[in-house]
Amino acid sequence: MAVESRQPDAFAIIFVFLGAATVTLLGQLVFTNKVLKELPADDILIFIAWAIDVAQTGTAAAWMKATWYGYHSSDVPDFTVEQQVHQAKIMLVQGLLYNPVLGLVKWSIIVFLMRLDDKRKIIKWTLRILFAVNLGHLISVFFGVLLQCSPVHMYWDHYKTDQVVDGQVVNDNYSCIDQASFSLSTAAISVSTDIAILLVPIAIMVNLQLPLRRKLAVIIVLSLSWAVAVVGAIRIYFFVNFWYGRFPDPNWSLWNTLSGVENNVAIMVSCAPSIKAVITWYMPRFFGTSNARSNTTPYHYPGTYQLSTRPRADSEGGVRGKGSSTEAIVRSESLDGSGEFGANSETTEPRTTQGRAT
């Protein structure tokens, strides 16, 4: 009788998502480099995250192969001590690589949002706090995973000295943190920061004077981290079931592929603004933009927007003085390739009735 296996499905999931993230990232890097002739800091962070993600995906595949992941537990052979030590080493490396990918992607998104340069203090401080929380989470989780057992090497070497007493594994040579509490709490913090980052672009864009269709399009593009939050929440659900023994056969389930899915979805989401720019450049009317190709520079990478003032021309052709009223205008490097946040955004030029203003 043939042994049933879902391992090929697990491999397909992690490598298909890695491939999609790779294509998305390459598209962003090629397009922005072609137009900007440089690599912005947020793109560099995404590239580093992707490189770590490649290593994490390879490590996950090696772990699946070593542990017979995707097979029914009844079909998995008993492992030798040496095999268990090898599996634990791979698992530790996988844990060390997983969180930095998400942390770097969030760092990239926060840097991107900071470059929009919203002048409101609440936005500035929110981004600063998110930056600090994300950086602290990245560092603390990395060292938490690395140092979860004392001494460290006992994370994998404990199999050499474990003893079974009354059906319980006993080993006085080391101690470890509560792995269930650690993994669930860190995952919850990660999803919370996903949600917080999701809300910031909405707050930034809501006050801009844009046609409703374009405003919604830009908000959706800049708020796609909801997809990462959803995958993260599903991952927590399966983690709870795993740690509290609610899986009838955890080795047969494909839930462990969610870590790779989450990382790769995060990379794809972080490239969303550039995806929108590419679509607008080749299909100008897709987001309601008709002049995407009319600018000297076809794609203005999202940089800053601000409320500016410019003297208005009076009815006699002169420009009003410093003390006169001014109009607030929105000037921006475009998020949609149109050269401004909205094609209908108005810039106030001096208006004359009798020749040019002087």
From TrEMBL:
Q: Which domain of life is it from?
A: Eukaryota
From start to end residue, where is composition biased (Polar residues)? 344-358
Pfam families the record matches: Fung_rhodopsin
One GO cellular component assignment for this chain's record is: membrane
Question: Where in the numbering of this chain does the Rhodopsin domain appear?
Answer: 36-279
Instruction: Spell out the residue ranges making up region: Disordered.
Output: 302-358
Q: Does the keyword Membrane apply?
A: yes
- Which residues span the membrane? 12-32, 44-64, 96-113, 125-147, 182-204, 216-244
Bilayer topology annotation:
Multi-pass membrane protein
Q: Which UniProt keywords apply?
A: Membrane, Transmembrane, Transmembrane helix
**Subcellular localization(s) per the UniProt record:** Membrane
* Family recorded in the similarity comment: Belongs to the SAT4 family.
Query: This chain belongs to which protein, by name?
Result: Rhodopsin domain-containing protein
Origin species: Hortaea werneckii (Black yeast)
Q: What is the lineage of its organism?
A: Eukaryota, Fungi, Dikarya, Ascomycota, Pezizomycotina
